[in-house]
Amino acid sequence: MEIDIKERSPFKVVHLSGDVDMHSSPAVRQAILDGLKGKQPLLVELSAVTYMDSSGVASLVEGFQTARQQGSEFGLAAVARPVLSVLKLARLDKVFPIHASVDERLARGD
Amino acid sequence: MQLMFERDFPAATESLAVVRAAVGEACRQAGGGEECAEQLVLAVNEACMNIIQHGYALAPAQQFRLCLMQDDDMLVVHLLDNGRRAAVADLRPRELDDLRPGGLGVRFIRETTDELAYLPPPAGFTNLLQLKKRIT
User: Counting beta carbons within 10 angstroms of the beta carbon of residue A44, is it exposed (0 to 12), middle (13 to 18) or buried (19 or more)?
Assistant: First the structure.
């Protein structure tokens, strides 16, 4: 699993790739929570994620809730099929803002 | 019932990737499709997470055993461990509107398998969790 953090003004983008499981999700959780400091809008780009378990989903939920509490934006972009499957199982696919891609969210403005 | 795979794993998160590979391979060998394999991989991964996190409270010197079997059109998974004794109440999923991080694992197992039960464990183990999934 790899975490790559990029600035795409005004967003911080956390790119994840590989398997996000109980072994790797603590680092994912920390990267998301660090990224949300300063209330910068944050996107998690998931196109290269090959597997996600409930601990990975929990990291996304925690990011979503932290952003909501502090009034900043949090969204998912380019959600790979294995991730979408588990989000649907958790009935969270309608809870998270999901964008087709980072570029699509950036082009939308506001 | 035909035994396809049996191995002991350290009760550590590093074991999960190896467990997933073994379950996916067994499912495909038994003639299961990609969706069937993905769902069983998710279920067994979550069950192993419970053993590692709650059964053994993250003690990697401990071990659990994974057995994969085929019984006609069913894949049968046995997970054996010596951790804290599990109870049927542990298999109750949390309500989905309870949006706390964590607690989703049991729901994932229930929604992706056909049967889920704790059986009387053989000598030397405190828990035997059996998961069954129809091969599709």
Answer: buried
